[in-house]
Amino acid sequence: MANLKAIRIRISSVRSTRQITSAMKMVAAAKLRKAQDKIVRLRPYANKLHEILVNLSQSLADSEFTNNYSPIRTPEKILIILITSNRGLCGAFNSNAIKEARRIAVEKYEAQLERGNLKFLAIGKKGYDLLRKQKVSIAGEYNDLLNELSFEKASAIAEKIMESFINGSVDKVEIIYNHFKNAAVQNVAGEVFLPVEPASDNSGIKNSSVDYIYEPDREEIVRELIPKSLKIQFYKAVLDSYVAENGARMTAMHKATDNATTMIRELTLLYNKARQAAITNQILEVVSGAEALKG
Question: What's the chain's Rg over C-alpha atoms?
């Protein structure tokens, strides 16, 4: 039978762990509620703006107008933006995004990877640390963005990425992140950030046949709104990942708290059994001694 003192120490340790996981669950839940409101308000605006710009770009396809973000070049130099978290204890949140990024790099851009023309840009310390261990080419890291996430900070990073595409440093940019569905479900998503591609049949963007009235003109609207739309799309991806992170952490800590409760219950039962066995042995020793004295 297990030692009573060892069982008591283990029960105390598990209780302390349960207090920590329960507190982390409440903190993640508070952050989730706050961030979820932002992403719920942002999604309709970002999706509609992207839909309008794609349709406007398609309407200008036959004209002489060109913008710096739409030319589709031979994808020789690839940049993959990997969005993870700065901290762990959030289940498979980080590993799923990292696996998807590696899968895309190996399966979709194998030739570019072998030639050293594929680079990663890490947003989140967990993704950056793993990419560094795997000794892949890293274009940069922006772990501080997640500490105080804001549109201004995200747009500054998006501008640098857009400049890299314009000057030809990269030919194609993809974003890999966790899309928030609910607190228990986060789906890994991959999107082409640059170039701005025309809507495909499975993109979910409707081809609009509305005859808009443009002021000042269609070309000027597209020229001004495309950079803004790209910044919003980038911010939406980072915010989506941030919300999904807190949802994953809340779920993971909820499960950990439940598991700790179950373990405490089992250890308490084991402790009572051990204590009962010890008391029984003491009674047997007393009875045996009394019988020996009678003899």
Answer: 28
